[in-house]
Structure formats: structure tokens, C-alpha cells
Amino acid sequence: MKTNKATPYIFLAPYLIMFAIFIVIPIIVAIALSLTNFDTIQTPEWAGFLNYINLFTSDSIFMQNVLPNTITYALIVGPGGYVLAFLLAWAIAQLTRIPRTILALILYSPSLTAGTAMQVLWRIIFSGDRTGYINAYLIEWGLINQPITFLSSADYLLPIMIVVGLWSSMGIGFLSMLAGVMNGNDELYEAGAIDGIKNRAQELIYITVPTMKPQMLFGAVMAVVNTFNNGMIGVQLSGSNPTPGYAGQLIVNHIDDYGFIRYEMGYAAAVSVALLLIIMLFSKVANKLFGEKE
Amino acid sequence: MAGYKGNRIAPKHFDRGQIKIYIIMLPLVLFMLLPIVFIICHAFKPMTELFAFPPSFIVKNPTLDNFSSLMKSARSAGIPISKYVFNSLIVTLAVVGIGTLISVMSAYALSKLKFGLRGFIFEVNQSALMFVPAAVMIPRYLIIEGLGLTNTYLAHIFPLLAMPVSLFLIKQFIDGLPDSLIEAAVVDGATQWTVFTRIIIPLIKPALATGIIMAFQQVWGYLDSSNLYVNTDSMKTLAFYMTTLANANNAVAGQGVAAAASLIMFLPNLILFIALQKDVMNTMAHSGIK
Q: For residue A283, which of A240, A237, A229, A223 has the smallest C-alpha distance?
């Protein structure tokens, strides 16, 4: 096919310009800023690796609260939500069309609430006085005498964040995996049955998962992204940054705290780079598990 | 060994084997569904039920009081709610329209046109699937300030226009169209732009719908721009205003208003998805990363 050499680039130009300005350059700027001291007023001052050294040696909140919280939250909501999404997609794929569509809608709709004012919902349910729904029911059933201040308590905040995170984790990856299961090749299943596959579990492991690896990978990447994009959840639930006792402090809150509350942009940029590295690490693992390249 | 009874995926008829799936699913479905039911009920509760102890889950005498006090609170704050609605409409239309258009254009180029950097650009975009905007909020803030976009509509619009996931999904969908369609048109003397608008666009409606829905989800609840890049209150979006309502009112009385605000933010997303869900599932069939 003969095409003018410039044509593809004309089609791509608007996207590439936006992509460069708001995705590529910000990442480069983050890396560059992380090597400086910058308070947004004076010009950035070269600091070498000082920010990183401080981050890992003298920022006790980062090492004792933020990093462990982030890892706990990300490991449960990321892989946990992902496995749940896959199993649910697989389960509802075995139902007839109308119940399947309705269930898919019910499971998917919480993810539509991510980041919106919907956090208020959980604040009402977990409200720390007798009018909070969980408290009211627990008192009524005689399980507790005093209301528990769920959202301002260092013991309860992180588990609640994880529950809410899991609740809203059936997003686009879930839909992708549902489509993946639905498009399974009938002949493979038949061949599998002849080769002695007896039950659904064997079918799942030997046929379904291997045939939908590409969707599994897409779902995994989306799970990682959703987990970290939801990083403000602790602040939204507790209503304060920093969260009570730093119990719900995730890495995104730490960036916000240093960047826009203390205006230590260089340091906040170093935290951002640490976050980008953690996300890359998670995606590498997903690629190892489901990638087909090697 | 029992004979092969047919693939169990996507059955046409109900059989007893499906009952155990329903039973296992029930608690999970309730967990997913109840919060949504709750917020809908809460938004329509009159004052007496909001204050009731023990609190009731289901609304008994639904009213629109919460919605009308939401409107009133907007007027008393000096900026009418219609201004926020107007801002959100402009921003949403721009991001959905322009964002989807530039994704489709690039997707077409990456899928059907041959050029040197094609593989590289696609690889870069594929790595950007895992891009998390929260990680670069500081550089973005500096860039927006540097470009002089602070306090303009463009500050709401620009950061959302490049959507790697949307480009990826649309590109995978276009890959499924046969090249012969395009070749035939080119032989007949059509330009690439004609091929794009007359042949490709009409054939990729499902992918287009998916692009639109994803852009809408991004922009409708987008808060970063109102929080960080736009300081003038009258330039902020509905999403921002609804969040302030939800956060400011901690008292029980404000809960109903907050619930109403949440519902207003949530419903358009849900309705759009229900309307387009067939197209979305159709696109998702091509969504795998190979």
C-alpha cells in the first residue's frame, strides 16, 4: 500500500504531543526534580541522591508507616482483587445470558465509584458514633457496648481501606477477563474432556487460564494501576492528611503531604520515583506470570 | 468416563449445575450490591429517617428534600450550581470528544499504516498502560503552571487527553479488521483520511463506544485539576463541588445531601455503561496483551 511517509505521523501527532507533555515529560521531570531541593519559589538546587538517602534512612514515617501500609494494601487489593475478579468472571461466564449480564453489572458498578464523592458512603456506614450503621448493628446485637471510632482508629483504618479497595476492584480488567473466558475455544474444551479432564477446576487450570493469558495480563496490569490510583482512599475515608497515627498513609498521600502541604517538591519527587519503581516491579511480576514474549 | 456434555461456558439454558454457582456468588454479590442500594436509599431519606436510631437501611418515605437542599446550599455559597454543571459539561465534552478522536486516529495509524517507528510507539504506549497519574502530580502541576494554563478550562482538559488504555483497546479492535478493505479503497484512489472517516470509523462503533465510556469515567469524577491547577472557585467542576459537599457535612443532617451528591456523580457513569455495555464487552474480547 502506498502511503505518504508523513501520513502516519499526522494521524499520531495530536496524541503523541499530549502523551509527551503529560506522561513522558512529567516522569522525566520527576526523576530530575528528585535530585534537587526545590521549594517552588527558588530555583531547584542540586542535591544529588540526598533525597533518596533521607527517604530510606531518616524518614521514619516513610519506612515505618507509609511503605508497610502501601505494601500491605497493594498486595491484598492488587493480587487479591485480581484473583477475585478472575474467579468471579469465570463463575458468571457459566450462567445463562440475562443473569450473567445482571451479575456483571452489579460486580462492575462499584468500580465506577472510585475517586468520586462515593467515599461518603463508607464514612456513613463506618461512622464512629452510635448513628454509624456498623456501630448501631453491633450494639443492637450486643457485640459491643461502646461505639468504635472506626475511621479515626489506627487499628481499623487500614483493614477498612482494604475492604473498600476490594469492593471497587472489579473494573475494566474484570470485564476483559470475562470476555476472555467467554471467548474460549469450544474445541479445546472438547479435546480436554477426551483427554480426561473431569471437573471445572481442572478445566480452569489446564484450558481456561492458558487460552486467555493475554486477557489475564491486561487484567493484571489494570489491577496494579487501579490499586495505586486509589491511593487517596485513606485520606478520603478518615478526612485528614496525615491519616490518624499514619495508619492509612499510602505512598500517594506521602507525595501529596510533602509536595502540596510542605512544598518540599524535590523530596516529594523522590517519593514519586519510588512509587513509579514499585508500580514497575508489580507489572514486571505480572508480565513474568502471563507474558508470552520469551 | 462420561461423554463430553459440551462446553460449560456461556450456556444457553439453565441446568442444575449452575445452582451452586448462584449459591457461592450470593454473599459476594450482596457485598458488592448493598453499598450501592444503601446510597440510593440514603439520598431519598427524609430528615426523620436520617436521624432515626437505630438507623434503618431501606428508605420508607422517599422524598426529594436532600436534592432540593443540595440546590439551595449551592446558591448560598455564591456560585450557582449551574455554573459547576456548565464547567463540567464543557470539560467532559472536550475530553470525551477530543480524547476519543485522537485515540482513534493514533490507533488507526498504529494498526494499519506501516512506518518505521510503529513498533516502538506501540511498545511505549503499552508500557504506559501501567501509568499512574498520581505519581506525577507534582511535575504536572509545574508543567501546567509553566504553560500558563492555571485557572483555565484547558487545565481540566489537557492532562486527560492522552489515554493509553483507550488507544490500546481501540488499536487491538482495529487489528481485527481485514487489510483488504483498506487496500481496495486505496486502489480506488481514496486518501488515508477518507479511508479513516468512511471505512474505519463506521466499522469500529464498539471500540468507539468503549473509548467514549472510558474517557467519560476519567473526566467526570476528575478532581486533580480542581484541587491543584485551578484556584478560582467559579472555574472548578461539579465533581469538585460534590466532593466538598460530601466532605464538609459530617453531621447526620448533611449526610442526606452528601448521599444525594454521590448519587448525582455515580448515576451518569452507570447509565452510560448500561447503555453501551454490549459494545464494551465486544471490545474487551480484543483486549488481551500479547
A: A223
- For A10-62, write each residue's pLDDT tens digit: 999 999 999 999 999 999 999 999 999 998 888 888 999 999 999 999 999 99
pLDDT of A194 reads 87
The set of cell numbers assigned to B286 is: 480484543
Predicted confidence band of residue A1 (pLDDT cuts 50, 70, 90): very low
Q: Is B181 on the interface with A (CB under 8 A)?
A: no
* Mean pLDDT, chain B, whole residue set: 89
> What are the residues whose beta carbons fall under 8 Å from the beta carbon of B2, sequence distance 6 or more?
none
Give residue B271's Cα distance to chain centre: 11
Grouping H, G, I as helix, E, B as strand and the rest as coil, residue A45 is: strand
Helix/strand/coil (H/E/C) assignment for every residue in B2-68: CCCCCCCCCCCCCCHHHHHHHHHHHHHHHHHHHHHHHHHHHHCCCHHHHCCCCCCCCCCCCCCHHHH
Predicted confidence at residue B1, as pLDDT, reads 40
Name chain A contacts of B289, Cβ cutoff 8 Å.
214, 217-218, 221, 291
Place of cell 476483559: A176
Q: Which of B103, B113, B142 sits opposite A15 (nearest CB)?
A: B103
Position B31 scores a pLDDT of 92
Q: How far apart, in Å, do the first and last CA atoms of chain B sit?
A: 36
The residues facing A46 across adjacent strands are A36
Question: Which ranges in chain B belong to alpha helices (H)?
Answer: 19-43, 47-50, 65-76, 81-94, 100-112, 118-127, 137-146, 153-161, 164-175, 179-187, 192-194, 201-203, 205-220, 224, 238-248, 252-284
A141–chain B Cβ distance below 8 A for any pair: no
Q: Judged by CB atoms within 8 Å, which residues 179-198 of A form the interface with B?
A: 179-184, 186, 189-190, 193-194, 196, 198
The class of domain B79-284 in CATH terms is mainly alpha
- Give pLDDT tens digits for B231-270: 998 999 999 888 887 766 555 557 888 888 888 889 999 9
B163 contact partners, CB below 8 Å, separation of at least 6: B99, B103, B211, B214, B215, B218
| B149 touches A: beta carbon within 8 Å | no
Q: Which three cell numbers stand for residue A136?
A: 448501631
What pLDDT sits at residue B71? 83
Contacting A residues, span 3-32, partner chain B, CB-CB under 8 Å: 3-5, 7-9, 11-12, 14-16, 18-19, 21-23, 25-27, 29-30
Closest CA to A67 of A191, A241, A250, A232: A250
Say how many CA atoms lie within 13 Å of B114 toward its Cβ: 6
- Which cell numbers hold the place of B73? 446550599
From the CA of B288, how many Å to the nearest CA of chain A?
4
Q: Which chain B residue has the Cα nearest residue A128?
A: B250
ipTM: 0.91
pLDDT band at B49 (very low <50, low <70, confident <90, very high): confident
Sequence ranges of the domains in chain B: 19-63, 79-284
